[in-house]
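Researcher: Structure prediction, please.
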Amino acid sequence: MSDPSPVLREKRGGALWITINRADRRNAINADVLAGIAQGYREAQMDAAIRVIVLTGAGDKAFCAGADLNPGQSLTFDYSQPTTAYADLLRLARACPIPTVARVNGACVAGGMGLLCMADIAIASDRATFSLPEVRIGLFPAQVVALLKELIPSRVLHEWC
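Model: Predicted structure follows.
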């Protein structure tokens, strides 16, 4: 039986592994996932023995499929409240002095791309795929693009969007 916790945190030597544990939902982001990842970053910063954070998803189908789109789970961005939990997590990760590795073990989609951008290094399996599907329906991935623009040449990013 798997742990029902949406995010697992496990010390492995000098590494803190943070695993999104929602393989049945393709490791989709909801409020509990955001809180669990943020807690992992905070725990790592309080533990002098932690030298690296590894962020990954459970299973082998998805690193993170973005926001959970089930009713009541959506994490849409509200421009009147720019300090949503997702944005707060991105800021927390950016300010973290501990190196982070994203272990991308499957689909990395939409908000999952934002989680990928939180990492200093990304390592992808042969099964990994990357996409910003919201642009297909005319939505601009504002939060993710704000992060990607520092990692990807602007012409490539404009083509993606």
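Model: The two ends are 41 Å apart (CA to CA).
Researcher: Thanks, that helps.
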